[in-house]
Amino acid sequence: MPHPKLSHMSERRKFIKKSLLGSAIVIPAISKSIAQPQRPSLVGEKPLILSTWNHGLPANAAAIAKLKETGNIIDAVETGVMDTENDLSNLSVGLQGLPDREGITTLDASIMNGNGECGSVAFVRQVKHPVSLARVVMEKTPHVMIVGEGARQLAISEGFPIEKEELSPNAKKAYEKWKVQSQYKPIINIENHDTIGMIGLDKDGNLAGSCTTSGLAYKMHGRVGDSPIIGAGLFVDNEVGAATATGLGESIIKVCGSFMIVELMRQGRTPQEACEEAVRRLISKNKGNIKDIQAGFLAINKDGEVGAFAVQPGFNYAQGTMSYNKMIDSKSHF
Ligand code: SD4
Can you tell me which residues form the catalytic site (predicted)? Predict the structure, then answer.
C-alpha cells in the first residue's frame, strides 16, 4: 500500500498538473518546477547516514567506511559513533567527557535496528565504548537495558578493557573550575552540545540508529539522560523511519521525543514536520524555563527524506552518503 502522505502528494501533484493544463498556461520552466516539488536534495540516495553536531562528519565517514566493508547498517552506526567515543577533544561523549558533581564520568548509550531489536547501557563507568556494550545487551542478553555496576560487570565478562578511572586533562581542568562555585544547575549549554545520535538507512531500506553520551556535565551521581532510553534519545522502525535526539535529556524524556517523531511519520508527517511537532510539544511541556533549554531532533523516513529541528538556534548535523558528507544547519523554534 502506498504511504498515505505520498499517495496524497501524488494526487495533489496530478491535480496541480491537470489544472495547469486546463488553463492552458503551460510555461515549461514553471511546469517543471511544479512537477518536481522541492525536496531535500538527498532523497532517494542510499545509503544515507545522519548524525548530530560537527563530530558527525568524521563519525559519518567511519560509518560509511564500515558499511562498505560489511554492508551491515548496525555495524555502521556502531562504528560511526565509536569514532566520537574515541575523540579526546569531545567533552560530552566517552570517558574523556565532563564528570558528574562527584567528579566521576558515567556514560549512557543505546543502539537499535529497524526490526525493533535494541539495547542500552546507562550510568556505566570505565568502559570506553558504551555503544558496543549496548550492542552486547541487544544481541547477547534477553534484556534491553543494563545499568551501573551490572553494565560494568557485563563488559568485564565480555572481555571489554576496563579503563583506569581518571579524568581527562580537559575534563579535570573544567571540573576544578566548576568546583569553585559548585553550582548545581543542570542547564545545558545552548550552543555547545556534543552528544552524538546517528541514524542510517542502507541501500536496501534497512534502518538503524545509535546514541552515546557522557550526559549533562556535573549532573547528580546516578542521573541518566535520554540517550539510553529507547523512544526518548533514539527510536527506529523499518516500516516508517528513525529519529534521534540531543540536548537536555529530561525535556526529551518527558515527551518521548524520538518515539513521537517516528509515530508522527507513521501517521503521514514528513520527518521535518514530525521534528517540528516534537519541538512544539517539548516547549509546551517546559514553558517555565524554555529559554534555558536546548533540544534538537534529527529524523529520516524510509524513503530517505530528512528532517531536523531544535528549540534554540545552533543545532547542526552531518549528512553523508557514498558520494559526500556535509554539515547542515537545522532550523529552530526561537
Ligand atoms: C543528556 N541528551 O544526557 C544528553 C546530553 C546531550 O549534547 O545531548 N548533550 O541529557
Answer: 195
